[in-house]
Amino acid sequence: MEQYQAQKGKNRQPKGQNLYQDGPGDRGSGQGRAAAPDPASNSKLKDAIAKAKANNVPNDNIDRIIKKAAGEGSGDKYEALQYEGYGPNGIAVIVETLTDNRNRTAGDLRHYFDKFGGNLGQTGCVGFLFNRKGV
Does position 63 have pLDDT exceeding 50, yes or no? Predict the structure, then answer.
């Protein structure tokens, strides 16, 4: 029994570390733009694939996610949405999301804002405080 527990504990990943997080499925701000599904011409995709391979993600999963993001495969439609609100102590927060279900996303965000002492605001309530930088 002790040997089984030791082996089980050794093979189990630590809590809070998701191997597939920040992999090729991390389509962050690239969604909505015409990004090529070819790693040779898309540096973000190339970096994401390198991260995924460093985390031992199977090649089949990487290929499936790239095809899904390129529009091949299932017909899921993703929307890029932006939510604004106030965090703890009145800190202005903008959350950019990519979702296939805007109702679920709004409910989840409202829950997290409430859970951590903030509140979800209306569109435009804090957007004027921010300037978009970068790509």
Answer: yes
Alpha-carbon gap, residue 45 to 33, rounded angstroms: 13
At residue 32, the pLDDT reads: 46
Token couple for 57 = 């993600």
Distance CA 42, CA 20 (A): 20
Distance CA 106, CA 97 (A): 10
Instruction: Return d(Cα 130, Cα 112) in angstroms, integer.
Output: 22
Q: Hey, what are 96's tokens?
A: 């950019």
> Residue 16 has what pLDDT?
54
The DSSP secondary structure of 23-63, one letter per residue, reads STT--GGGTTS---S-TTT-HHHHHHHHHHHHTT--HHHHH
Residue 86: closest CA among 108, 57, 112? 112
Indicate the residue type of 114: D
β-bridge partners, 81 = 97
Strand order across the beta sheet in which 92-99 lies: 92-99, 79-86, 119-120
Alpha-carbon span 67 to 64, nearest angstrom: 5
Mean pLDDT of 120-131: 92
